[in-house]
Structures are given as structure tokens and as C-alpha cells.
Amino acid sequence: MTDLELLLPGEADKLVQQLRSFLPQEMGSEGWSQQHENLEKLNMQAILDATVSQGEPIQELLVTYGKIPTLVEELIAVEMWKLKVFPVLCKLEDFKPLNTFPIYMVVHHEASIINLLETVFFHKEVCESADDTLLDLVDYCHRKLTLLVGKTSHGGPPKEDRLQDSTPMQELQNQAELMEFDISLKALSVLRYITDCVDSLSLSTLSRMLSTHNLPCLLVELLEHSPWKRQEGDTLLDQFPNLADLKGFLAHLALVETQPSKKDLVLEQIPEIWRRMERENKGKWQAIAKHQLQHVFSPSEQDLRLQAQRWAKTYRLDVLEAVAPERPRCAYCGAEASKRCSRCQKEWYCCRECQVKHWEKHGKACVLAAQGSRAK
């Protein structure tokens, strides 16, 4: 095993085979926690494989063992938990946990799964292996993008503001809201990879995307609001290259002549996972929240210590450094930078002093870059 390997081939094979979907009421249980750790390991290994270009066995294993539908079902289950159970937990007056880490793990679970799907959906065979659950995944992406458009049209992306007197549960709610923004952008990437496979998509999936959800119009709205940019302060993402292809696809779609509708009988598939879970748990969400409060999210100090030890083994520092994106560097001194030139948005600086010292060299290029941006 090399320094940048987290899992041995045989170990990854075993973890993928063990993947299964959990119901919303099972979130946070012992079996679920073990799978969450396994998913994090698979997630980090998949990113490492893609980063160092040494083949992608995780993606191949997920396709071989037919686990993409399992991941989609697990993704929708935790999404439903966050919408139906998490708000109930936050409103319970008698629930004041000393440690919110177990709940945070469930909230973070959605981000882990969508991140893994984003990594592996780059490959066409992964999209094809989703089978009927691709309809459910399209619906999921539509919900996330609708939420993203709704929030950005009312003031932009969430800010990392914290109340001084906030309770642990209020802080957790704030973290969940910030995480939701990142999840929505991951869903956008997954949807983009699905559109790359348009030639092999079923008629039901295409109908769901174009007729039911009218995704082209939603994507146009998303492009107009550009939620990945801040109007004030630093830009969230330095670049979003996928959107150039998306813009070209939308322009092409506007020029394509639509075929006349036919009266032939068509049997259309519909997504089942969300409806089934909602039907099976209708009227039970309050009871599920209270049960999890007593048996899942109130662990003893010893249980928390054991869980912390397991996570310390899962998150190796050397792996995290390899997975984390490289921080921008100051154009003048080379230190890590957190601010960029407000005019051209090209050069990064660690402080005001470095920007002033570098202006003599950067000034002319800055003016030209700013003029070019306005001309576009």
C-alpha cells in the first residue's frame, strides 16, 4: 500500500459488497455508523484515485456489485431524515445534548454520499448502472437546484454568522444550512454528468428532465443568479468550467426543432424511493425523533470516546492533506492567501500590504483584465 492509499484492493472490495440502504428511522444506529465510516473511507480513496490518476477501482467495484442504486436510496433516505426528523429534534425543548457529534454525522452523511457520486458519475458506465433509480436521482437533483435558486434569489449563499448565545442545536442547524449549499452544487455536477449520457438515458428519464421538471429553464435561472459567486467579499469558487459546456448545451437546445407529438401509448416510469419512504413513515416522524433522542443521540461518555477513536483512525492527516484542494498563494510573498484583487479577481494576496507592494507589477495587467471582463 502506497503512502496515498487508504484501502487495500481486497479491503475496498469487502466494504463495497457490504453497502446496504438504511431506513430513515435507522439513521445513527450502530450498523449505520459503521457504514458511514466505510463510506468515508471509500469516498477519500475514490478522490485519491482520481487525483493521482492511478485507475479508479472504487468506481469499478460499485458498478460490478450493483451498488449505485443502493447509494441513491441511502442518499434519499438521509435527505428525508433531514427534512422530517431533524427539524423535530431541533424543536424538542427537553433535548439538550452535551455533544451533538452523533447528530452531525447523520447531517453530514448526505454530503458524503453526494460527494462520492460526483466523483464516480464522471464515468458513463456508472450512470448506466443506476438503472431505475436514475429517475429518483434526477428528482433529487431537481429538489436541490430548486432550493439553491430559491435561496440565492433572496440574498445569496448562506453566511457563516454565529450567534454568541446560540445553543449547540442552533449551531448545528447553522452548519446544516451551510452544508446544504455545498450539497446543492455537488448535485449540479451530478446532473451535468447525467446529461453527458443523454444518448443512453431512458425515455422516462428524459421526459422527467425536460417535461416534468423543465430542467433547462431551471438551469437558465441558476446561471443568471450564479450562486457560486459572492457579490461582496471573496469569490466562492475560482472557476466553474462545467458551466461553459452547460451554456453551450442550452444554446443548442434553443435552436433544435421539437418533434411533433405522437398519440401512441407510452408507459412511463416514475420515481419510487421518495414516495415509498414517505408512505411507509407517514405520521411517524415525531415518534421516530423521540425514539432516536433516547436510544441513538444520547450516548454515554464512553461511547463518545470510542466513536472518536474510530474516527481518528478513519481520517488520517496525510490523506486529508492530499484530498484537500490546494490553497491559493499570495502573488507577492507566496504565503497562503485569503483575499483577491477586487478589480480583476485574478491575483490573490495574504494582506493589504502585499497587494500595495505588488501593484506596480500587477497594475497594468489588472486594468486590462478588468476591461476584458466588462466587455464579456
Automatic annotation (TrEMBL):
MF GO annotations = zinc ion binding
Where in or outside the cell is it found? Apical cell membrane; Cytoplasm, Cytoskeleton, Microtubule organizing center, Centrosome, Centriolar satellite; Dynein axonemal particle
Q: Which UniProt keywords apply?
A: Cell membrane, Cytoplasm, Cytoskeleton, Membrane, Metal-binding, Zinc, Zinc-finger
Q: Which GO terms describe its cellular component?
A: apical plasma membrane; centriolar satellite; dynein axonemal particle
Swiss-Prot/TrEMBL GO biological process terms? inner dynein arm assembly; motile cilium assembly; outer dynein arm assembly
State what this protein does: Plays a role in axonemal structure organization and motility. Involved in axonemal pre-assembly of inner and outer dynein arms (IDA and ODA, respectively) for proper axoneme building for cilia motility. May act by indirectly regulating transcription of dynein proteins.
Q: Which PANTHER family match?
A: ZINC FINGER MYND DOMAIN CONTAINING PROTEIN 10, ZINC FINGER MYND DOMAIN-CONTAINING PROTEIN 10
- Name of this chain's protein: Zinc finger MYND domain-containing protein 10
The organism of origin for this protein: Octodon degus
